[in-house]
Amino acid sequence: MMHKETNKRKYRQRRWITAVLFLAVAVTGFLYARRQPGMLAEEAGTDGETLTFHAEVSLRYHYALCGHDMEQEADARRYIGLTQEQLTEEFPGYAVKKFSPDQAILQKQYPCYCPSHILAYLEGEEVVLKQCTAFEENFEEVQRISIRAEQLSAEDREALMAGKVFADANAAKSFLAPYQVFRQEQH
Questions:
Q1: pLDDT at 104
Q2: What is the pTM of this model?
Q3: Alpha helices in the chain, H assignment, sequence order
Q4: pLDDT digits (tens, 9 = 90+) for 52-105
Q5: Alpha carbon distances (Å) from 179 to 20, 127, 148, 169, 174
Q6: How far apart are CA 160 and CA 154, in angstroms?
Q7: How many helices (H) and strands (E) are present in the chain, helices listed first?
Q8: Residues 6 or more apart in contact with residue 95 via CB below 8 angstroms
Q9: CB 100: neighbour CB atoms within 10 A?
Q10: What span, in angstroms and rounded, lies between the C-alpha atoms of 181 and 125?
Q11: How many CB atoms lie under 10 A from the CB of residue 152?
C-alpha cells in the first residue's frame, strides 16, 4: 500500500516538473521569437509580399508644428516587385505606414510648418515672408515688406524677431499694413 502511494506521489511530481519545464521552454521560445524579425505571425504579415503591377504608392508628409499633412503619389511602376524592406531602402527617412501588394503608404515627418502657412521675420526695417516648399523641409523667401519698425509694439517686435506664423500671405500683409512703408516712384 505504501509502495502505491509513493508511486502516485512520484507520478504527480513528474507531472508538475514536466509542466514547469514545458512552460519554461514555451516562454523561452516566445521571448526568442520576439527578438527575431518575422518569427511571430503578427510580424510576418508582409514577408515575401511584393508590390504588384496595379499597386499605388503614396507619400505622406506630416508637418509637426501645424499638424497638417500633405500627400502625393509616387510613380508605382518603378517599385513593382519590391518588398517592404526594399521599398524602405528606396525611401530613406520615411516610415512605412501600410504595405500590401496593392498599396504602400510611406510617411515622412518634418519639424516645421506646412506650405499653407507664412512665417514673418523682422530684419531691420523689413519683414521677410517665408514659406515652406511643398513636400520639403526647406523655406523660401516669398516677399520683403518695408515697415516702420519703430512703431511696432514690443510684443509684435519680439514675435517678428522670433518668426511670427500666419495662416497665409494675406493674413501677414493685413497684420503689417499699419506699419508698411509705401515707396513712391521717383520721376
A1: 96
A2: 0.62
A3: 2-35, 84-90, 154-162, 169-176
A4: 999 999 999 999 999 999 999 999 999 999 999 999 999 999 999 999 999 999
A5: 80, 10, 5, 16, 10
A6: 10
A7: 4, 8
A8: 106, 107, 108, 109
A9: 14
A10: 9
A11: 19
- Establish how many alpha carbons lie within 13 A of residue 171's alpha carbon, considering only the half-sphere containing its beta carbon: 10
CB 116 within 8 A of CB 69: no
Given a contact cutoff of 8 angstroms between Cβ atoms, the answer to whether 111 and 66 are in contact is: no
The closest of 49, 48, 47, 52 to 80, measured between CA atoms, is 52
The β-bridge partners of 73 are 58
Q: How many CA atoms lie within 13 A of 63 on its CB side?
A: 21
d(C-alpha 88, C-alpha 177), whole Å: 48
**Separation between Cα atoms, residue 78 and residue 60, nearest integer Å:** 18
